[in-house]
């Protein structure tokens, strides 16, 4: 019988991925592995681990295999219908938490798993939070996450702001599809398994960002913030779009990897 350590070493996977998959099979946390890795794995455990390891070797993202990913300290259910939450997006959430006015009405566009609005509502219970997505399958995942985590968020199917035309918000946030369709990363690694409609606009990556900046003007209260996540090389373009659209205090913030990641401004 192989030990747990041998299962990990012989899996053909990166050590961290193999550990996470084994712990999922065992329903244990990392502390358990330290004390037990020289024990023998049962046949059932070996078979269950082998099945997950084969999926990972075929390229499937760990988050889809486990069905969940941690974001801002909470566990979110994910499926191939939604983008896997990224640590980079925690910057967008932090900026929104700091800028949303007391008891404000805020909205997230292209919500995917719902990790942004759900986190905002749980961190700032005073806020009234809405979230939109064009994909019914994504909205089903977001609904489920809100129910599991106990967050009151109003979800609507919508092509960007269309479903809430006429409403005005105290803050708009979005992590839209912003990858250039020609970017080679789309055909590499985990991104191959994520919904392409959540990653790229099919053009230069700026189409949805530009649409949101333009459409948001009619739906922000005076002085309200628009905060947008974007690619590491899109900060200057976003600032220019924001300035042309009449936003003030336009600026770009960097993520933990020191890349431009969020740009925003206030309207009116
Ligand atoms: N940050 C993601 C990536 O580069 C892209 C997410 C998005 O397009 N909104 O993999």
From TrEMBL:
Its EC number is 2.1.1.297. GO terms for biological process: methylation. It comes from the Bacteria. S-adenosyl-L-methionine binds at residues 110-114, 133, 160, 175. CDD domains: AdoMet_MTases (cd02440). InterPro entries: DNA_methylase_N6_adenine_CS, HemK-like, N5-glutamine_MTase, PrmC_N, RF_methyltr_PrmC, SAM-dependent_MTases_sf, Small_mtfrase_dom. This is Release factor glutamine methyltransferase. It comes from Deefgea piscis. The lineage of its organism: Bacteria, Pseudomonadati, Pseudomonadota, Betaproteobacteria, Neisseriales. The gene is prmC.
